[in-house]
Amino acid sequence: xxxxxxxxxxxxxxxIKELIKANCLSMMGKEMVDKIQPMxxxxxxxxxxxxxxxxxxxxxxxSPLPIDxxxxxxxxxxRIRVEGSFLSEEEFFQISLSLKTVFSVINYFNERKGVYxxxxxxxxxxxxxxxxxxxxxxxxxxxxxxxxxxxxKLQEIFREIAYAERESRKRMDALxxxxxxxxxxxxxxxxxxxxxxxxxxxxxxxxxIKGYIHDESATGQTVYLEPEEVFQLNNQLRDLExxxxxxxxxxxxxxxxxxxxxxxSLISYHGLLSKLDFVRAKALFAIDIEATMPELQKxxxxxxxxxxxxxxxxxxxxxxxxxxxxxxxxxxxQRIIVVSGPNAxxxxxxxxxxxxxxMMVQAGLLIPVDPNSKVGVFRNFFAxxxxxxxxxxxxxxYSAHLSKMRYFMEHSxxxxxxxxxxxxxxxxxxFGGPIAEAVLQNLNxxxxxxxxxxxxxxxxxFANATEGLENASMLFDNAAMQPRYILEIGKPGSSYAxxxxxxxxxxxxxxxxxxxxxxxxxxKVDHLLVDxxxxxxxxxxxxxxxxxxxxxxxxxLKENEERSAFxxxxxxxxxxxxxxxxxxxxxxxxxxxxxxxxxIKESNADKEKTKELRKVLDSELVKNKSIAPNxxxxxxxxxxxxxxxxxxxxxGTMAQIIEIAKGNLILAIGDLRSVVKKNRVEKTSNKEVSKxxxxxxxxxxxxxLANFNPEIxxxxxxxxxxxxxxxxxxxxxIMMSFPSLKIVHGKGNGILRKMxxxxxxxxxxxxxxxxxxxxxxxxxxxxxxxx
Length: 787
Prior knowledge:
Blueprint: E1 2-3, H1 7-11, H2 13-21, H3 27-34, H4 42-61, H5 73-81, H6 89-110, H7 117-120, H8 130-139, H9 152-182, E2 191-193, E3 196-202, E4 211-216, E5 222-227, H10 228-259, H11 263-288, E6 295-296, E7 302-307, H12 310-318, E8 326-330, E9 336-340, H13 347-362, E10 374-375, E11 380-384, H14 397-411, E12 416-420, H15 429-445, E13 449-453, H16 457-465, E14 469-477, E15 482-489, H17 497-504, H18 508-517, H19 520-602, H20 607-627, E16 645-648, E17 654-661, E18 664-669, E19 672-677, E20 681-684, H21 691-707, E21 711-713, H22 719-735, E22 740-744, H23 751-760, E23 766-771, E24 781-786
Parallel strand pairs: 1-11, 6-10, 9-13, 9-14, 11-12, 12-13, 21-22
Antiparallel strand pairs: 2-3, 3-5, 4-5, 7-8, 7-10, 14-15, 16-17, 16-20, 17-18, 18-19, 22-24, 23-24
Enzyme class: hydrolase
InterPro entries: DNA_mismatch_repair_MutS_C, DNA_mismatch_repair_MutS_core, DNA_mismatch_repair_MutS_sf, MutS, MutS2, P-loop_NTPase, Smr_dom, Smr_dom_sf
Pfam family, one: MutS_V
């Protein structure tokens, strides 16, 4: 229930419906929009929200839904019901086009079975009657006219008409030429009068040709004469036209009779097309206001995160401004929010935003909030907004407010959402404040939910001391003397009456006199609220600074942990490699010693032979010792710096220093990174760096330039995948100094094009965006030019 009847209009819900209607393709879709009302059945609301959410996903990320022809099939079906009635050729043609649209839509979803489950429910029990289209196509051609082959008799009539027309034209051309040669005709050729072909004859010559005069010119100098020779032939032609019309009517009656059993199916098809147009219009509006689907709950509560008033959002966007988002929660413990603060500070907009968004959700509309927002279901909407004085009912402004308060108290409950603007205003504050407090106390006992705006201090104090009520304030910048339009829950706000009056320019003596007239207690409360606001701002700024420092510290700690893990992993790998090398050296040495001993034994310990074998053994051991790890070190006077080229002594591999950490070096070996001790490398000059290393890098870059094509086709991709691919191509194009990049995204509904262009404008390297030439794709292709 919505009370009063104009509450939806005052919240802006009627204007929302008008914006949605502008997106409809048909009158039947607009009629459904007119019927939109808040619902209170959880399942029904959830179904409508999911349908709109899925259609929005189709418009943004999938191929366009083939909705090309939407005609009022129900109107035609109602006429078909009547025995003896028949539809025109054009009406049958519209039914055929509409049914082909229905079947195309069903095929579209069948190809995506299970992807759009909520939308599939629209036609899950719908019968496919292709016989209807087949019967119509047998009679009506693709231009909406009846086919000559619709019946044998009609085909014969068409043939006779064609013959009669040829004969009539042939004789008329001959008579015209004869009259022209004789100089009897006026300027011009054959013309039609009263549906008959005539010759324009000068009035003085009208007796020279026998025939029937159908008309004359305005001056009377020319008469339009049908010659007697073709008169009978033209009569025959007219009779044939009557025969053709009668046969067409007979065929249309027969076709209407054939379709009469399918009337229930036609009405079902009408319902599907209406719903598709309806859901599509809601989805387009959701895209326009950047709306999402919040989490729906069964209890009467709400938690809006970054909520924006949709109408305010659209107006601000046209003016290049942004809306300050609203964060608010209403639940079992925080049932009624009492909002106070300065005039023109956004209190009423805050309240209307909450009411309008809640009403939109329960009407099955997506809303501009963070998708993590939670929205419950309310059974009643009560609103007291604006001046409702009535001359007819003999009600003043305050009387009208009290009448609403009485209705609210009589009919509200825990599933009611109440919105009251300027609570208690309209009468003497000395009496209006206590009455408003008593009403608020009554509503709180009923556990109603809602938002109330006020300037009354007694209501702020009552909310502070009463369970279920919560103070909130619209923040005000004391220094700049202007509202910040931010809702802060937990404390009341000052009206800043004197501060605003001072800014406007009221004389100082007037303001001083006004301050002396207000009560001491009120003055203390107002000053206290102003001081609290100032201190709150300082605390908030300190928290923001502290949070920024904490984030920086956490980031540094994370980087340090990652680097430590990287170094530890490389240390393990190097130690493992060194052990393997040492084992190999030891194995080779043992093998050499064993071979030497065997050869000494074979030579029976000959001195000369033993001496020679010992020399060989010593030289091999020295060689193995020279390649053992940690034996050869960098000279002390060699200074290593980032960017220097070095050679790893163990393997002879060339590498470049990218970082120095204590006794370790982090080296770049091609695309690999490795940690090596300083004493395991030796510095080498750039000239000694392997030419093959530089040649390989140059070859790789040349191949990249040769293989890169600055054109990408993202048609059919979802938005996220398309942007990911474009980002990779954009980076390569900028790195390789290409002047431009061509992106083929297709036209469709223009959603993908808009998302891509908005994304590209964030790059400072992008100079401008242009469409392709109309002959080569137009706005289905975007050229990106770089600075």
